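Working notes for the structural subgroup meeting. M.R. asked for a predicted model of this chain before we commit to crystallization trials. I am recording the input and output together here so anyone reviewing the notebook later can reproduce the run.

Input as submitted:
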Amino acid sequence: MGGLFLKVLLLGASFTGLLYSLVDFRFYGKTGLKRPNFVIILADDVGWGDLGANWAETKDTPQLDKMASEGMRFVDFHAPASTCSPSRASLLTGRLGVRNGVTHNFAISSVGGLPLNETTLAQVLQEAGYVTGMIGKWHLGHHGLYQPNFRGFSYYFGIPYSHDMGCSDTPGYNHPPCPACPPAVALSQSDSSQPFFLYLALTHMHVPLTVTRQSADLSGQRLYGESLREMDSLVGRIKDKVDSTVKENTFLWFTGDNGPWSQKCELAGNVGPFAGLWQTNRGGSSAKQTTWEGGHRVPAIAYWPNRVPANVTSTALLSVLDIFPTIASLAKVSLPPRRHFDGLDISEVLFGHSQNGQRALFHPNSGAAGSYGALETVRLGQYKAFYITGGAKACDGSLGPEQHHKLPLLFNLQEDPAECAPLDSSSAVYQDILPKVTEVLADVLQDISGDNTSVADYSHDPSVIPCCNALEIACRCQLL
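Returned structure, recorded in token form:
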């Protein structure tokens, strides 16, 4: 986006400003704590190994590492999809793309967005009396009623999609000649006595990377490190603001939307031990856009002093899909009726009373192989079964071929986190696990077939490209 606008987003001026507006010591009444506040920070294309708390080789995230030492770190935490729009739609609905209709990314010329009959977490909390704000990357529809202010957010300051997609006559151009769109009117202090929900969807770590202290001699890897340090500093500033205002009653959750974009070479993040070697040995990337671990296993930290125990590492199998039902439970609000959810209320895990997470996770195709949204990979306990394999475009330009497996490839992630060698299909372990995988997959597909599902509008029309003229709903980009 335009330089000033992008810098404001990256430096977080609007983040801290909104927090000043939302938090107030009047929130604490004489009768004690009221309903908790929630802050969800979602990083873009961040690698599991980008956090020092996860991967000792990383030295660029002291603030996040500190948060992990003061809260709970999840090491088996997964995005619901391995690309932007489906993952964000699932976060806000608690439902997989085959239910909510969002199975792949919306483009700059997309007409639709997250189906309007889907209820977002923000709408549920707003109806329950929460003040709701969203800042950063939306990517769930930028035309008409698909915008954040119509999806439950009282306040919105951000960009409609990734910051390399632009809003000009040249879709995908990194730096279109657009001035910043006017920000929304800030919330008044009269709202600060209410509990709040803040969804911060960072532009980090998606490329192109823009950092405040960028110098001409920065190599790609150093540039990524600088951007990672900037993201870490921003998260630290947000945490500091929470700590200095509403620390005892605010739940902060940091995670990512999917794994690194390996196609971008040295500008991509670190998957840690989750290298997807079976795939990379055959060509293509095993990170973003794939169902290999590097595509969907993401860093996650929960922070809530005196509620979430400090310096705890949870090995529970969890997902971004769990955020919706967990927050609804903590806010004491009901889930939307007449629809099924794919996440769990994991309050007992968060408070240190349980290590029981999801029994199974289902990883949808997000662009590398198969049909968009199809549940082609199943995680069951420590085992992971691939019915379809394929790689996304790699740094070297290779693209792993799509392969269908009549007998799924089965990996033991506890012994083989790099997904290097599948189990022998004639082994006793394979013969024991395969029927269980088949059963859980059949169960979820049957559940989906009887659910109230949605269909997203993925049609295109260049006239709906957003512009920078606040007086026009949709037009070509023009100076004010």
